[in-house]
Design a protein that fits this description.
single chain, about 425 residues, alpha+beta, 15 helices, 11 strands, about 40% helix
Length: about 425
């Protein structure tokens, strides 16, 4: 069907483009997923320049965001208009409209009406996952027409206004635009996500309720590592991973970081995490490191980290994981250790990295352990050394793992 759309005309390099807007419902009806184009199966691999749509990601992540978040927003779609020989742009200047003398000269030349005769086939070069998500969000059904489990559709999304950057299709140019846009689209880093995530309630609590309240933000590095001379105390990722693990320990379930739980659950998590961090930061090397959070205390923090292996971010995670194992451990009579008692035990131990016991557990020669697997093993060893009650078979297995990673060394005696 023919249509006339208000448009802005621009040019980038050799490519003429038009910026228009469409309501989401109209966009879904108008645009064609490349794979659904006639003749798709006959194209060569080179010609199939569009990637397959990951409908699972659309259904599990993008569509729920569009259907549940009132502050939803998505970027512009880049669309190629096939069969667009009769697509005409009529500027305001060419239509004879008169403008005040103070109006920028470029305005009447660049703004106008884009005439489509209805024969065009509009194909997204960038945005096909968002396009599918809009449809899923409005209808509550996936690409096969099956209702999405646990999903409440939101038909109002159809009224949202989307921005479209429209170009005339040219096989070589369209392919190049698609490849360049996606090749140079750098994924956000883990730290970026933790700083900006709003659906991950653990990330929100850490950055809004813990950092800045229980620990000064200037001593928390948004990078994932700390150099030997760094004045930071820990990293944002470390605080997040510890908090996530604690929430899963307390609730006994895996946290869904893609959507917000009920408000009462978030409030309870906030209380639990504040309680944990308030006590965790009373571990002596941590407490001393944070006595002076100003830049004048940076040197002391780096010195303490050199003298206490538990001040290394990965060991902070291992120690926290050990605490969680101890919190879950039942002693005689069904009694469980409390967090205060565990912290007291930790504060009786010599954490100097040169102490022989840490070889094969927290240290490998003069290097601190690295990697998630090593961290998990260190957590089990620390929990054992701090007095976790293990069955004989569990101790035997732990001894075998320790011997395997230390060239046959005997499992050390418990420290507590």
């Amino acid at each position: 069907m023919a249509s006339q759309l208000p448009a802005f005309q621009g040019k980038f390099g050799s490519t003429e483009y038009f910026v228009i807007t469409m309501k989401a419902g109209e966009l879904v009806r108008t645009l064609t997923i490349p794979k659904e184009m006639e003749g798709w199966e006959d194209l060569t691999p080179e010609e199939r320049f569009q990637r397959e749509v990951n409908y699972k990601r659309v259904a599990q992540h993008i569509a729920p965001y569009l259907a549940t978040d009132d502050d939803r927003f998505i970027g512009a779609f880049i669309v190629a208009a096939h069969q667009a020989d009769d697509m005409i742009f009529e500027s305001l200047e060419s239509s004879g409209v008169k403008f005040p003398h103070g109006m920028p000269k470029s305005f009447p030349k660049q703004f106008g009406v884009l005439h489509l005769d209805g024969s065009e086939v509009l194909v997204p070069l960038d945005g096909q996952h968002r396009l599918a998500a809009l449809k899923f969000a409005m209808e509550g059904k996936d690409n096969t027409g099956k209702e999405i489990s646990g999903f409440q559709p939101k038909p109002e999304v159809a009224s949202d206004v989307c921005t479209v950057i429209l170009i005339r299709h040219d096989p070589q140019k369209s392919r190049k635009i698609f490849n360049k846009v996606n090749r140079y689209a750098k994924p956000t880093s883990k730290s970026d996500n933790l700083i900006t995530a709003d659906d991950d309630y653990i990330a929100v609590i850490v950055r809004e309720k813990i950092i800045g309240n229980l620990i000064e933000s200037r001593v928390v590095n948004t990078s994932n590592t700390l150099s030997a001379s760094s004045g930071f105390f820990t990293t944002l990722a470390t605080m997040y991973e510890i908090s996530l693990a604690y929430e899963e320990t307390i609730t006994g379930r895996k946290v869904d970081t893609t959507k917000l739980p009920p408000g009462a659950d978030i409030k309870l998590a906030e209380v639990n995490l504040k309680t944990f961090w308030s006590k965790f930061l009373t571990i002596k090397p941590y407490e001393v490191s944070l006595l002076n959070s100003l830049d004048s205390g940076d040197k002391q923090r780096s010195e303490i980290r050199a003298q206490s292996v538990i001040c290394k971010p990965i060991v902070q995670r291992a120690l926290a994981e050990a605490i969680f194992l101890l919190l879950s451990d039942e002693e005689a009579g069904g009694k469980k250790l409390g967090l205060t008692e565990i912290i007291n035990r930790i504060n009786t131990i010599d954490w100097n990295p040169s102490t022989p016991i840490w070889q094969g557990i927290l240290m490998l020669g003069d290097k601190v352990i690295t990697g998630n697997g090593a961290m998990k093993f260190a957590a089990r060893m620390l929990a054992y050394l701090l007095g976790q009650k293990l069955e004989k078979t569990e101790i035997t297995k732990l001894a075998e793992q320790f011997a395997s990673s230390t060239n046959g060394k005997k499992l050390p005696e418990v420290l507590i």
